[in-house]
Predict the 3D structure of the following.
Amino acid sequence: MALRELSSLEKCLGLKKPNKYGTQGERKVPVLQNNNGAPLVGLVTIASHLVHEAKKTVLLGNSAEERAVVQQWLEYRIARVDNCPKDELKVILKELNHYLEDKVYIAGNVFTLADILMYYGIHRIVVELAIQEKERYLNVTRWFDHIQHYPGVRHHLPPVVVLRNRVYPSGHH
Amino acid sequence: MTTHSAFSAHFSRVFSATQCAKRHSHAPPFLLSLVLKMAAGTLYTYPENWRAFKAQIAAQYSGARLKIASTSPAFTFGQTNRSPAFLSNFPLGKVPAYQGDDGFCLFESNAIAHYLSNDAIRGSTPQAAARVLQWVSFADSEIIPPASAWVFPTLGIMQFNKQATEQAKEELKRVLAVLNQHLNTRTFLVGERISLADITVACSLLWPYKQVLEPSFRQPYPNVTRWFVTCVNQPQFKAVLGEVKLCEKMAQFDAKKFAEIQPKKEAPAKKEKVSKEGGKPQQQPQQQEKKEKKKEDKKPVPAEEEMDECEAALAAEPKTKDPFAHLPKSSFVLDEFKRKYSNEDTLNVALPYFNDNFDREGFSIWYAEYRFPEELTMAFMSCNLITGMFQRLDKLRKNAFASVILFGVNNDSCISGIWVFRGQDLAFPLSDDWQIDYESYTWRKLAVDSEECKTMVKEYFAWEGEFKHSLTYMFLRENAKTGIRMHVAAEEGLHIFPPAEL
Ligand SMILES: N[C@@H](CCC(=O)N[C@@H](CS)C(=O)NCC(=O)O)C(=O)O
């Protein structure tokens, strides 16, 4: 799962040469064996490394504050979204929906790594939502649709259909 | 032809891509074709014109090279645009007006913005393009009239009339509600990317958001505000607009400014009656002075009857004081040097002129280098970075000269240049308008008599040489050792792209 994600991220970043990843432990934490030095462990660490390698560090945030927010949401992705028990998924959607009410992107006003990894992480949740639920979590849905259309992002994941016009008039709470 | 040179005289040098091609015939041809395809020209406008912003932002997205002629001597609003030469190209005499380096002329801001766009922001399918046009027309016919009616009095450029303002507020609410509904499920107005629709509608809402849409007023339209804030914070918008601060408190009629601007057009004032009727503005203390005028405008007054919107907007511009006013006069006439540099041979004429006439008390010479070369990717983007900086420093033109060079190739490049400023200190802290870019550069003041300075001035002005005094040189050598690409570039006597000066 994390491995396919990393390979999509490589493509998204325009990295030509795919890396070989291993995994560690029963949670299958991804590991990248670095030629010169200690191995890189964990999705966030490896993803940030790939961004540097691709010379696209703007994706990590443009200011100190933006970089902090990107890191915060990368952690949120790992700590909250991954391994989230089924009955708590709704809480995550609610949190995100609220957060995205006045935002187009996760961090700052531009597309960052936080958008990419959150999109990969949350795809399995959004793909399961009924139309009515998508309307309830309108801000998540709008953000999700924008990111899945962002050039080069989607790759291994199937597109999720999003309706522009409300089917259920009072879907928003 | 004469028209053109008259207007462009103040620009240090007008480049054509062919000139550039001749000079650096070894440069990769694909980069040159990229330049040739992009529009390049001059936009005439008064400063800070939101209509011109549409075109300027579009150019940021497309990479079209746009010079802004907004201050004298290049352009003086009310004079230049009334001259026969201008009128023969632009019969309305209105701005913004665009003239391409190839002579192609356009008026009407929307047409200019369209021309300076690329397909991605014009809408790449017939449907998308039509939707873009839909929103552009929507902005002109639905947003601008109420926005102007409400905002202009707060800028002191139109008489206040309560009824007209209230009506404008209601109309704007209706328009914002439509936008809010549309943006409920959408990130941008058309498709999933920024288009000319977003540029146009955002620019039309710029004054309202800055001036009157206070938090409680905009609260019912969160989707519009989310979209607006995102737009104006895109690098391409920011490059033109600077930091956009949303209104905190709804501005009220600026009676003082109105009084200052208005008298020229005012009928002789009648002193007897001092009225205090319904259309009364708010609590501005200075307002007594012109109460007498007010009785003449009891009914809603359309903008045309007052003062031309644009003359007014211009008059409302705070007269910026000269940031260099504290310096004594200098014997070195920068404009004369620029003329020589533009029109005559650099090594044989311009440089000797510079060396003979340079005034070391009145001016200083600096070496600047971009701090984040590893973030530079495509050459045309770096080119935008440099030209964008020059655009933002427009008002520094009279007091500075710079030759900035992008060295290298795509994904392996760096930027450095030589700057000549009025005064002995870095000029940027002198004006809030100049703060955006300079911290991205390291600045080193050069000792005017040093060999180093002489060589660097020569190399950077002529765009040729070894450049071994700059860190750029080390950068080039480093790469020459480790990579093929820069080695090639160095052997060709450097691939310089784009040549750009202030
Ligand atoms: N619809 C035109 C409006 C242009 C316009 O009204 N320009 C005004 C400045 S805001 C002008 O140049 N007026 C000068 C004059 O009428 O002499 C556009 O969008 O370009």
Notes: The pocket of glutathione is lined by residues B 51, 81, 93-96, 108-109, 308-310 (CB under 6 Å). The radius of gyration of chain B is 25 Å.
